[in-house]
């Protein structure tokens, strides 16, 4: 019997096949999809499960009020979006592993949908018991590593050896990527970060130019230029990606769907249950009964 594992998404770009186990994406861009067949969901949803985090990074943009999402609500949103063509959900925060039902949530979403389940973590709450419990429910994981060695230890106030151990634990769960905030402290360590990513078996280095917050001004113009230059000239052993930051059109990073509208590509739910265009957006739409109604409202307000 032929086992069909591919999930299909219809968009203005064509017909998109996706396999969460291998991570394979195939886009048939010569197919014109009629407007009424276009998938209603964004391709990818990120969800801040909680604002809680025990670290105190100066450039953190997570809201500082206590908020945490109910697991039944998140599972219901995932089921709704899955049926409407969403390909993946990524849990973050705050620190998602600080959510008391994090492991259960990953398992329930993996069981009840065909979407890829991913999460981003600082890694310091991972134990062999947690990673054993996550295995089979997670399809990709991202480890936040801002700088290497002493720089990491100064910014995160945790031993660098601990994040190396966390990388090993995560790698036993699923393919991994490394996320790195780029700012004045880390701009000189991009070669070291890409070497670290390769050493720990990551397949991707996602660079996050620091965003302005009440506490920090964000990446300077000079450091943004250095970042663009590095991305254009570096020959890393891992794939490079960059967050939505205004710099993405200037660098040769991977673009999954060329020309895709941002609201078709991605939306974000904060820990209070408000759907936003992305994690840094100041405005959004509270999710009531249906997340697809909120998706529609966000698109109409854009
Ligand atoms: S690890 Fe992430 S969520 Fe926690 S304080 Fe640092 S930037 Fe914020």
UniProtKB/TrEMBL annotation:
<dbReference type="Pfam" id="PF04055">
    <property type="entry name" value="Radical_SAM"/>
</dbReference>
<dbReference type="InterPro" id="IPR013785">
    <property type="entry name" value="Aldolase_TIM"/>
</dbReference>
<dbReference type="InterPro" id="IPR007197">
    <property type="entry name" value="rSAM"/>
</dbReference>
<keyword id="KW-0949">S-adenosyl-L-methionine</keyword>
<feature type="domain" description="Radical SAM core">
    <location>
        <begin position="39"/>
        <end position="245"/>
    </location>
</feature>
<keyword id="KW-0411">Iron-sulfur</keyword>
<protein>
    <recommendedName>
        <fullName>Radical SAM core domain-containing protein</fullName>
    </recommendedName>
</protein>
<keyword id="KW-0479">Metal-binding</keyword>
<dbReference type="InterPro" id="IPR050377">
    <property type="entry name" value="Radical_SAM_PqqE_MftC-like"/>
</dbReference>
<keyword id="KW-0408">Iron</keyword>
<dbReference type="InterPro" id="IPR058240">
    <property type="entry name" value="rSAM_sf"/>
</dbReference>
């Amino acid at each position: 019997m032929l086992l069909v594992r591919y999930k299909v998404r219809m968009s203005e770009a064509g017909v998109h096949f996706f396999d969460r186990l291998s991570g394979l994406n195939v886009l048939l861009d010569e197919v014109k999809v009629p407007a009424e067949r276009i998938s209603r969901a964004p391709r990818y949803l990120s969800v801040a499960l909680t604002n809680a985090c025990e670290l105190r990074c100066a450039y953190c943009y997570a809201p500082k009020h206590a908020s945490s999402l109910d697991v039944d609500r998140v599972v219901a949103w995932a089921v709704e979006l899955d049926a409407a063509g969403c390909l993946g959900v990524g849990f973050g925060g705050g620190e998602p592993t600080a959510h008391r039902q994090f492991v259960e949530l990953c398992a329930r979403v993996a069981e009840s949908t065909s979407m890829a389940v991913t999460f981003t973590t600082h890694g310091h709450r991972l134990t062999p018991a947690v990673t054993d419990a996550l295995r089979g429910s997670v399809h990709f994981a991202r480890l936040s590593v801002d700088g290497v060695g002493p720089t990491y230890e100064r910014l995160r106030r945790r031993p660098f050896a601990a994040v190396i151990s966390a990388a090993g634990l995560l790698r036993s769960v699923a393919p991994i990527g490394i996320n790195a905030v780029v700012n004045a402290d880390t701009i000189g360590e991009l070669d070291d970060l890409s070497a670290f990513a390769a050493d720990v078996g990551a397949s991707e280095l996602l660079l996050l130019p620091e965003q302005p917050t009440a506490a920090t001004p964000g990446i300077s113009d000079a450091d943004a230029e250095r970042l663009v230059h590095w991305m254009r000239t570096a020959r890393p052993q891992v794939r490079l990606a960059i967050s939505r930051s205004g710099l993405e059109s200037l660098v040769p990073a991977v673009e999954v769907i060329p020309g895709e509208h941002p609201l078709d590509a991605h939306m974000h739910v904060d820990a209070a249950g408000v759907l936003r265009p992305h994690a840094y957006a100041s405005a959004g739409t509270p999710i009531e009964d249906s997340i697809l109604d909120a998706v529609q409202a966000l698109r109409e307000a854009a």
